[in-house]
Each structure stands twice: as C-alpha cells, then as structure tokens.
Amino acid sequence: MEFSSKAFKEGKCQGQKVVHGEIMPLVLQPPEPNKGDLESLLFALKENKDWFEQMIINNSAVLLRGYNVEKAEDFLEIFGWEDIHYVGPAPRTHVYKRVWTANEGPLSEFIYYHHEMVLIKECPKRVILFCEIPPPEGGETPFVPSFRVTERMLEEFPEAVEEIEEKGLKYTFTALSKNDTSSMRGRGWEDTFGTSDRAEAERRANALGMDLEWLPNGAAQATLSPRSLTKVFDGRKGRRMWFNTVVGMHGKEHSSAMMADGTELPESRDVKKSSKKRASNSSGKREMFSSLITWLCFMEEGLLFLLEESWLPQPSSLFRLWLYQ
Question: Which CATH fold would you assign to the domain 147-278?
Fold first, then answer.
C-alpha cells in the first residue's frame, strides 16, 4: 500500500525489507523537526487512529522514531485498545497498568522467537515495545514475520507440518512457587496466577485453558493441550501464522512439547537431512528458524515499536512491554 499521510513522514531503519509487497517495518517520523514532542505525537495518532491501525495490519509492524516519549504511561491510553493481563513464564516487573518489563532474566540468555502469550486462550492482538533505557552496547532486537515461517516450513517439511496440525500439540512446563530471575522463564506460579492459594490457582489456570499438577517441592506442572501449530486471525489478510512455542519448550529441562496424543514430534529423513545441513550439532533435531529472514531494530531512547500478532519478536530486557486485546 502506498504511504500517504500529512501527519507523519516515512523513514527508514537498518534491516528494513519488503515482504509480499509491503515494507516491514514501516518507519514513521515527525513531519517537521518541531513536531517531535509528545503532544504532537498524541494528537497525530488521535486524528489518524483508523489509518494508523490499518498501517499496523498492512505492514505488520510500525516503528515510531524521533519522538520525545520518556515513559510508557504517556502513551498508554491513546488508542483506546482493550487491556489484557500478562500470563506467562517470563519473570517480569509490573510497571504501570498493562505495562511490564520485557524480561528480568540474565542478559546472557537467548530469548527465543515467540508470539506473546501463545499458549493462553486470550492472547494480545497487539504488542508495543518501548525503549526506556538505551543499552550500553549492542541493542539489536530481531523480529521474524510469522507467516513467512509457516510458508518456509510448508516448503521444506510439508508432511510434518500437516501431521502436527492435524493431531495438535501438547505442552508441559514447571513453575516454582516463587520467581527465579536466574532463568528467562523463571516466573513462579504465585505471581503468574496472582494468588498463593492452590485451589484458586487451579481455578484460574483452568480458566486460561491449562491443568495444574502439584509437585512435592511446591512447584506446579502445567499442561496445555490440545494447541494448534498455526493460526489465522480475522482481518489479517488470511495469513497462516506460525503460532506455537515448540522451539521454546521442546526438549528443555523444565518443559516439553509433543503431539497432543502423547507421541513424539515427527522426524522424517528429509527433516534430519535439512537440519544437519544447517547445524552440525543438531543431531537430527529441527532448528525451525535457522536461515529465515530476520529484522534487526536497534534500540534508541524513546523508541516505540507497535506489532500485530503476525510477528515473532525477541525483545531485549531493557524494553518496556505492554499488551492490548
């Protein structure tokens, strides 16, 4: 879609690409040097709300750059989007209303590509990433367009994809009682469900589509099944999103991913052959995101990144993140 707006000037960023005829991400900047203040930004978004939301759908992601946004609270209510509470294994600090830090785990740990709250029945339709503190070095935040992952997987492993899609997926993960910030996925069940009462935690877990089993050490093992491998969202061009967390949970110490009937994920000769080409240490296991196109967005103070659910981000822990239904 051709860019047309008097309220914004189209910019560029490192790693920007064209996919299926659309620029990803779309970079929006102040139309004039004196229009970069917060008041001008909020006015422009309010006056062009429908157009802006359409740009998020058309381009999958919009990067607002060059505006003086100092804290997440300043930007929170402008769209009137419905609030949604974070539920997931990442240890996060609550900042304000729907705003959370991205992850309080060690900076040395890799955050795998994922959809936000992919396991929960009600996941956010939009995610905003806000850079409050620029990193002292590095700061790259890669993104992958999820529908391209599905397209590539269907090209390379069509039989495995359709078999998993037909049978569905089953996940398990273990959550300790209290938060453990030594792990990227160390959020305790008390914090996750907002209660220390086991019966209430079970009720809230069931409402979210998961079953809990209590372990002798006080931890809880959650089971989620069946879950789909891909998903098509209404009003999102009919694209088939790679909407799962197999990579993040399969074969890990405190989690697992398998077929919904309890059998292992399929591994064909072609899958093993392709995986060995990509990584010498794969031992036949699939590395689903290797060789896929990624976008690197370098964090700057005040940077705002608005995403629809077609993207798999790997946000830095220096980001503030907030969720909308």
Answer: Double-stranded beta-helix (3.60.130)
